[in-house]
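Re-run requested by the PI after the first attempt was lost when the workstation crashed. Everything re-entered from the original request form. Ligand of interest: benzoic acid.
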Amino acid sequence: MSTNTIEANRRAGAFADHDELWLFGYGSLIYKAGFDYIERRPVRITGWARRFWQGSHDHRGTPGAPGRVVTLVAAPGETCTGMAYRVTPAVFDYLDHREKNGYLRAVQPMTFEDGHVEDGLAYIATADNAAWLGEASIDDIAEHIRTASGPSGPNRDYALHLADALRDMNVADTHCLAVADRLRALIAAE
Ligand code: BEZ
């Protein structure tokens, strides 16, 4: 299965005339970029929450047994802390391909630790994409992640690395940390 968003992202073209721009990383980008960047800094966005509600058919799962990865969902009043990367536009060509399974670029105002705000781009998978899995209990999400695996490796590695990286940044992300805690308990009982 593929929702292939490459063309839609290319057409969107926000910041196309910029030499450098900010990318908001909130998932695997927090612990592993996989591309060259100019600098990176912790930032937060408001009105969004990180959730394991997106299916992964090409990285942490397969078309027959998709994994679960994070996306951003609208959450009025909440903030989501991530890592901003200052990059050249070429990075978006790479990420459009890597994240083609339902993620679309969206302009996002980001607040830096010194309080100043700048626009950047985030990849967001919304409920209308074909790989969407949606809400489930923490127990069900953790059990799902325990068994899934794909070309980029076990889904559990993704979830545990993300939780470790968030803890290192002192980010109290209750959803991701609860999934990781439950996942560790399930793995211990294997
Ligand atoms: C991230 O790790 O922030 C991310 C990048 C591309 C798509 C979804 C999440």
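Saved to the shared folder this time. Helices lie at 6-12, 28-31, 90-98, 138-147, 155-168, 174-188.
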